[in-house]
Amino acid sequence: MRATTQPIEREALLAEANNIIRQHEDYLRGMVATEVEQKGSVLVFRGEFFLDSDGLPTAKTTAVFNMFKHLAHILSEKYHLLN
After folding, report:
1. Ranges assigned E (strand) in 10-52
2. How far apart are the first and last CA of the chain?
3. What would the pLDDT profile of 25-73 be if each residue is shown by its tens digit?
4. Which end of the chain, N or C, is more open, meaning fewer C-beta atoms within 10 Å of its C-beta?
5. In total, how many domains does the chain have?
6. What pTM was estimated for this model as a whole?
7. What are phi and psi of 71, to 5 degrees?
8. How far from the centroid of its chain's Cα atoms is residue 57's Cα?
9. 33 with 45: CB under 8 angstroms?
10. What does the DSSP 8-state code read for residue 1?
11. Please, are residues 20 and 71 in contact by the beta-carbon 8 Å criterion?
């Protein structure tokens, strides 16, 4: 798959991912991708998951998970991380 995707620096990819997040209709205040790693051909995004004081998921957690899944789907088709 890397033959059909463009190489990108981690910081540039996070900037693009966070721009997509902010423009998405399901954006929640505080939703941000802070990390990304390459797992095979898939880009895996991480960030705040809105856990409560006991470390348990809140109602916002599902929205964040879905957003990171969306980013993985659309950006993995376009890019691969430079090592």
Report:
1. 33-39, 42-47
2. 16
3. 999 999 999 999 999 999 999 998 889 999 999 989 999 999 999 999 9
4. C
5. 1
6. 0.89
7. -60, -45
8. 18
9. yes
10. -
11. yes
